[in-house]
Design a protein that fits this description.
The chain is an alpha+beta fold. The chain has 14 helices and 20 strands. Strand 16 and strand 17 form a beta hairpin.
Length: 495
Amino acid sequence: MTPQELKNSILQLAIQGRLVEQRPEEGTAGELFAQIQEEKQRLVQEGKIKANKKIEPISDDTIPFDIPDSWVWIRFGNLVNYSMGKTPPRAESEWWGGDIPWVSIADMPESGHLHETKESVTPAAFDKKFGNKISPAGTLLMSFKLTVGKVSILDVDAVHNEAIISIHPLVDDTGTEKMYLFYILPFISQFGESKNAIKGKTLNDASISNLLIPLPPLSEQKRIVAKIEELLPLVDRYEAAWTRLEDFNRSFPEDMKKSILQLAIQGRLVEQRPEEGTARELYEQIQAEKQRLIKEGKIKKEKPLPEIAEDEKPFEIPETWKWVRLSQIAVLENGDRSSKYPIEKDYVDFGIPFFGAKDIDGATMSFDNVRYISQEKFSELGNGKLRDYDFVCLLRGSVGKCAVFRADKRHQTGFICAQMVIVRCIDLGIFHYLRHFLSSPFYNKYIESKVTGTAVRQLPAKELGNTLIPLPPLAEQKRIVARLEELLPLCERLK
């Protein structure tokens, strides 16, 4: 049960006469109803209020639920006198900026006291637009448009807009009636003239007047208010605990996923097996392949990378693993940024995908809204051409965000925009482990530490290449990936 559902249950019990017991010595609401009608007739005769001709009689088929025999049903317009507010013309500055508070729905706290307003009106507006009629401090307000049934009690003398009514109970020397309405109106105003909820629709003068109010004897009202005020702090405590639990439940799947990925890259998700060799052997194989590609002119020779110092290593890894930099096990390739870079006239209805930041959507590059360049334009370009299983990483905006390019029958290749970089595994065998590493909390934290710029966040490609990677032996990588692909879907199911 949500906190609001619990609160609604309390209010439902209250308006059904089931929150406190009935006491015969407290009389009946019929006696109170007679006093109210007598007072209403007196005020009408004295010209202090107008007779409300919109009030309809109450028939059995309009009564939404049973109430105790000592209670009565009464129309809101027969219980209180209420008045709507106004909004002076905005274009005329003479009405605004004075010292008289003007209340809008945005000023009203939820079921609380209103101390101040964002706007105020001038004495001239008070005179000519509001007829010098103020809602004094202590007045109960209720919104009846947009946010229907929002209530507040004024702590200052004020006027208000036309979406709010000031409520003045006709008989209420002790303020009990006002507080009873303060608590039940947010709930009761959600019902129209029948048993069907109005579900937030705007009320009007007629529907406000005809709201059905279950009226207890005055002494019982007082006990109902006291009981509600005893219970609501407990509801608040329940809400705080419920919110903490909801936050935990909401964050738990993602936190669990992060923990699993962190265990994986620390060598703690699966056991190490000596017969599987070492990451150093794998690293040397990758370096040999890299040298071959350089000699064949397929990749460019890079400047030597700095050695990984002991104080750089963020955590312990198994002895069979090895710390490496991303540029040591993969090739990083920027897109062509020359004068040949595609411009608006180069786009076509269908051709070679030209990927932008919006196309990194999930684990793989999205073709849903991608733009295309012609085959001719693509042939003119140099670096930045994609192959199957290439990673694409953002260098601006959501820096470090990665997705995989997967070729299909329609899209055998693609091209990246200037704010991206291709990360291509030298040995495709490490692809799946690297894919999980690039979604790990360690990787994200490292990338965040290298971001430059505030207005536009940027990541130098060099810093991406320097990313530290804990590299396991290839056979262990496969077992890690298999375990991750078993556990991570369970985290998704928890969502």
